[in-house]
Design goal:
Strand content: 5-15%
Number of strands: 5
CATH architecture: 3-Layer(aba) Sandwich
CATH class: Alpha Beta
Helix content: 40-55%
CATH topology: Rossmann fold
Strand order of the largest sheet: 2-1-3-4-5
Number of helices: 6
Length: 204
């Protein structure tokens, strides 16, 4: 599989837990269906590599970024997760202080309920977030519309086309996963990306 170029790569910054999986699947499918390639630290598996270094490399290699900063709930020990806002901060810093190529970065920022971020990260006041309400169909619409606007590519299909194809893909996914000998509840990131790539290729 060829390495995607900077202008075709999208950094995915979101939770990777089971609860978020329906939204992550919709993100990955939407990105591929719009003609781009998702990138995140899960795409590499080198125990000798520091996770933060992986994230920085991903951000450096991606013009675009999808950031979901909605996971603010505290865990069993009474602490929230700060990974997503932190990674968005690195992306934002690259845009502000990087070279000419890095300065043309563009981000889509999700939260569950619009403007909730003002309660916990007020330095971001003034940015235009998108509320996904934990609904994959809203994720798909916002990613499609954002990429069509910022990339100005006329090859990106309409929202209804992508949504209908995605619903068909999700219906067929258990059969595909079984055929490949994988676990539907625990599909490795790279395997899922390859499955989506093949499904999208059949549609084009």
């Amino acid at each position: 599989m060829p390495i995607p170029g900077y202008n075709d790569s999208i950094f995915i910054n979101c939770p990777f837990d089971e609860e978020y999986m329906p939204l992550l699947k919709a993100i990955i499918y939407s990105v591929y269906r719009c003609g781009f390639v998702p990138q995140c630290a899960l795409g590499e598996d080198d125990a000798s590599d520091i996770r933060l270094d992986k994230i920085i490399r991903c951000i450096a290699n991606c013009r675009y970024g999808i950031h979901d900063i909605s996971r603010t709930e505290i865990n069993a020990n009474g602490f929230p997760r700060f990974n997503m806002p932190f990674e968005f901060g690195i992306f934002f810093g690259a845009k502000q202080f990087g070279n000419k190529k890095q300065k043309n970065k563009n981000a889509l920022i999700f939260e569950k309920i619009k403007y909730t971020y003002q309660q916990y990260i007020s330095d971001l006041n003034g940015i235009d977030t998108k509320a996904h309400e934990n609904k994959p169909e809203i994720i798909i619409r916002n990613i499609r519309d954002w990429l069509a606007t910022v990339s100005k590519r006329n090859t990106i299909p309409g929202y209804n086309v992508i949504l209908n194809e995605y619903k068909t893909f999700i219906e067929k996914l258990p059969e595909i996963v079984t055929r490949l000998g994988l676990n539907i509840n625990d599909i490795p990131f790279n395997d899922f990306c390859q499955i989506v790539e093949e499904a999208v290729r059949e549609k084009i």
